[in-house]
Amino acid sequence: MKKDARIYVAGHRGMVGSAITRRLLEGGYADVVTRTHSELPLDDDGAVKAFFAENRPDYVILAAAKVGGIVANSTQGGDFIRENLRIQTNVIDAAYRYGARRLLFLGSSCIYPKFAEQPIVEESLLTGPLEETNLPYAVAKIAGKVMCDAYAQQYGFEAFTVMPSNVYGVGDNFHPEHSHVVAGMLRRFHEAKLQGAEKVVVWGTGTPLRELIDADDLADACVFLLENYTEGGMINVGSGEEISIRDLALLMKSVVGYTGDVEFDATRPDGTPRKIMDNSKLSALGWRPKFSIEEGLAKMYAWFCEGAALREA
Ligand SMILES: NC(=O)c1ccc[n+]([C@@H]2O[C@H](COP(=O)([O-])OP(=O)(O)OC[C@H]3O[C@@H](n4cnc5c(N)ncnc54)[C@H](OP(=O)(O)O)[C@@H]3O)[C@@H](O)[C@H]2O)c1
Fold this sequence. Notes:
The chain has helices at residues 15-26, 45-55, 70-75, 77-97, 135-155, 181-195, 215-228, 245-256, 280-284, 293-305, and strands spanning 6-10, 31-33, 59-62, 102-106, 158-164, 166-168, 199-203, 209-214, 233-237, 242-244, 261-265, 274-275.
């Protein structure tokens, strides 16, 4: 990928898209094209075609999607499948028709079967039933991955899919109901510190294991893959570092500087006992994450305290 290539980052104001945009600019890529949701609604086929006809990016990174937590997913399934199918179909098709050289599509680990063997290998896709709570979102993401493969096979368009594990970091969403595990926990410890609360209660036994990846590491991996990966298909991107919910809570307590107690409410559901990706394909290419969970959380908390995140709260 040449430094003067025109690169369109779709979803550049989201957590992942903003990290990718920062990484590209830091890496000396000078022609990064972005549009906000209101400037370019990606579910509008005509608007997407007009944008691609005018701008003709060489590379496209598709980090725009309707994303949400368990509540939004289970109550707005219609919106999730419609919006995501439209966004992906419009962008992948226009990228091909208007001459882009390559497209990177961001998938999600929820597309893997609910009971996939751990660590999850890329080949386990479509080998078993999916988790029911976010089925419309997962099916849309699978359709996007299959569309990339089919365009590669039929038209020779170099579209491929990156499958990240749980992402956290700068730009995360701290909404009390719609946030993911790390951002939700960070907010609760921060509020407990401010209120001088005696304890923070964490749902479940604390034993489930999760693989987390810092958004800046994911962004670095995406740029690395655009520069070095030619195989196509799909590739897992995780940190390879697992942490239990208990250890995550204790680490969060220390990063935030909360001095009260942490309690685990074992009457609440634990969710999947372990979720980790097999990252051997990525490791074999020579990519390694830069941030440990401790470093990533400290960076995220510093950003949160700067107040940028509070506008979402
Ligand atoms: N966060 C994770 O843990 C995680 C894990 C695995 C995979 N991923 C994937 O990574 C990608 C980015 O996720 P994220 O966490 O960065 O999400 P995010 O913070 O919610 O960002 C999504 C971006 O897409 C934009 N967008 C949504 N609908 C649009 C539309 N119709 N037209 C134009 N722009 C639209 C949003 O703009 P507005 O905010 O203005 O609507 C936002 O900037 C997604 O495909 C997601 O599936 C994320």
